[in-house]
Amino acid sequence: MKPEPIETPTVRLRLLRADDAADVEAACNDPQIQRFLPSMPRPYTRDHALTWINDEAQWAAGGASYAIADPATDRLLGTVGVHHVDTDRAQGEIGYWAAPWARGKGVITAATKAVAERAFAQGFDRIEVLVDLANPKSVRVALAAGFHPEGTRRGAARNADGSRRDVTVFARLAGDPATPVVRALPDLPGGELTDGVVTLRPLGPGDEDFYHELFSTPDIVASHVPPVPPDLEEIRLRCARSESRWLLGERADLVMVDAATGAPAGDIGLYYQEPVTGQAMIGYCVLPAFRGRAFSRRASVLLCRWAFANTAIARMIAGTNPANGGSQRVLEAAGFLREGYQRNRLPGLAGGRIDDILWALLPGDLREKD
């Protein structure tokens, strides 16, 4: 017996049909879909589409495979399904993709919610979504559909070249509400922060060359934890996963930009290490060509003001090398107060250890003006 379609106000979930083949072929040749579904044939042909459309293996295994269709036109917008079903544990995994012409409209979130509700009604107790953190759009779908992040599954997915990559597990239980997961770090208003002199924008793909230059600067390397320049692969992953780390509430990495020229000048990060206590930490660095222009102080004020106003962060800390007088002046000018001296706190160059001065800022301490 064929399953009934699932109707929602924004999408219709129905069985795939032969007349969807052209849209499936076009969508599955999209670079983004092929990037995150590396087992997909390349190029993807009409024959591949028809073979997949007629494959009922997911249904036979207790899962499902639906076309996401426009309720008005019935045109294919994407697909969603339940697979990797474990009947003993009453759990499965939801997978989805959106056609290029359907993105940014919320259709995948609506479809994911609808399929999860159908699965729970049919006896599933737990549904997972596995996401590559280089795919922040998929992270947004999982969070918006009520799936909670649970951690990293190392090497759980295979790349097209046979190598393996990590994925993050998101899950909903049958009793969980279908409401979006509340984020600890919201998006920036308008996508950036600025005071007219310095602009802060999220780090992302395309910043690799700048980050390589920044973290190859000797005095920046010396204050980095650990004091070792990151290799190109580490930089690539940091840029690719930055938006997802922000969405998960772990950290916010931002590029300091000279507002007058648009040139990237430095980096500032917010690390939300203690959400239970409402404490986070900032760290920053600036290329030598942009020093002496109060960029670090301005960036610190912008970021801390936003954090205190828009998150549950109640206390911001920072640390400085006792020998780094410049950074201590930055923090003092922003309103941070010195609270302690931590001996041998951090790894130093050549295997040694260095002391660290602890600074802290409360909302009422912030100095908004020079």
> How many discrete structural domains?
2
Secondary structure tally, helices: 11
Tally the beta strands: 16
Computed CA radius of gyration, to the nearest angstrom: 24 Å
Instruction: State the end-to-end CA separation.
Output: 72 Å
CATH architecture of the largest domain: 3-Layer(aba) Sandwich
Helix content: 25-40%
| CATH class wording of the largest domain | Alpha Beta
Order of helices and strands: EEHHHHEEEHEHEEEEHHHEEEHEHEE
Keywords: Transferase
Organism: Asanoa ishikariensis
GO molecular function, one term: protein-N-terminal-alanine acetyltransferase activity
InterPro entries: Acyl_CoA_acyltransferase (IPR016181), GNAT_dom (IPR000182), Ribosomal_N-acetyltransferase (IPR051908)
Describe the structure.
The termini are far apart. β5 (91-98), α5 (107-121) and β6 form a beta-alpha-beta unit. The protein is built from 11 helices and 16 strands. The relative contact order is 0.08. With 370 residues, the protein is α+β, with helices and mostly antiparallel strands. The strands form 2 sheets. It has an 8-stranded mixed β-sheet with strand order 1-2-3-4-5-6-8-7, sandwiched between helices. An 8-stranded mixed β-sheet has the order 9-10-11-12-13-14-16-15, with helices on both faces. The mean pLDDT is 94.
